[in-house]
Structures are given as structure tokens and as C-alpha cells.
Request: fold
Amino acid sequence: MEPKDLVNQDPASIPKFRAIRTKNGRRGIRLERAFWLTLDMISKQRKIPLHQLVEEAEDSVEDSKNLTSSLRVLCMNWTLDQVHLSQTSTSDRVIRNLLFACPTPAFTLFKDRRIHAFNQPFLTFISRAFDMLDLRQVASNLQLLLDRRIEKLVEELKLGGNSPVNVGMTLSINNRRVKGRINAIVMPKDEGLVLVCYLLPRGELKF
Reply:
């Protein structure tokens, strides 16, 4: 390539050589900068080192000469997933409107079990169950446990076409606990996935 072509070339398309040490030894890999940037983003999102991504690509191909192709496919699939997520993600406003329109106690839950938002009936339910009127105290002390791992619940919802799944739950503040059951569905969100949970009226209060 002529020097003048390099000047006009998109920087993201310029190849870059990097040496990555994997379980199979030291690998010299030449990829366009855009792919290295994408691999770094995948690494940060999945919270794994870059060499582990390269190892996954190595394991997916029989011929080591196809490693760069495997890495490009990995980047492309991840990018397509991000595009799909951005097109189908639900805004905070829409999720909150769903909660506020529900006449029964409802809340949303992140995968780390943090309650993201809730409606007034849920706050009333908590206040009566725990004799608490201070919203700040509820928000800072309320803890929730489900009778199954959230990762398995999300997987079950995906496999079931997002049909509501009945789940047992325990709400606790300090040393007081209330048990009940919820119907849960999953919704895409910018930060990932959020569970929308509707408290079932039967057997709400079990101390």
C-alpha cells in the first residue's frame, strides 16, 4: 500500500499486530484495529482477559491458520447481538409505566437481585408488612431472595417464550421476613436484562 493510501485510509481498517499468550503458546495475530477494539469491548463486558477470548476462538477451529477468521466472526456475532439489543431494549420510562399501570404490587429486578423500580401498591404492601412508612428506609434495607438462581430463571423464561414463571420469594428488612410468590417475565434493557415481577395475591403474607 502506498503512503498516500495510508493517509486516506480509515484508521479502524489499518491492521495491527499483537502477540497474545494462550494455553497453547504465544500467538502472533494480525487484525484490523476495529476488531481489536471490539475484542477489548467483549473482554470488558464479559469480565475475562483477552487471551481467554483468543483461546475460545482457538478451540472453535481445527486449523490454527483460521484463528483470525474465527476472531472476526466472534466480533461480528457480538456486534449483531448489540444491535439487536439496542433495537429491542426497553426504556426506563416504558418499564416504569408498566409498573405504575399495574393495580397490584409489582417491581423490577436486575440480575444482581437489586430492585430497580416498584409501584405504589408494592410500597404499600411493604409498609404494611414491615410497619414502615419511611421510603428511604425501605430502599436502603430491603433485601430479596428467590427460590432459584436468577440466571436459571432468565434461561427458563427465554426457553419458554417469556411466558410468566411462578417463583417463590422472600423479602426481608433487618430480621423480619415476608414470604410470597411472584409471576416473573424478562425484558431487554440497555444495561442487559431486567425481570418484571408481579406479586401474587394468594398467600402474600407469610411471616
Residues 203-207 have pLDDT under 50 and may be disordered. DSSP finds eight helices and eight strands in the chain.
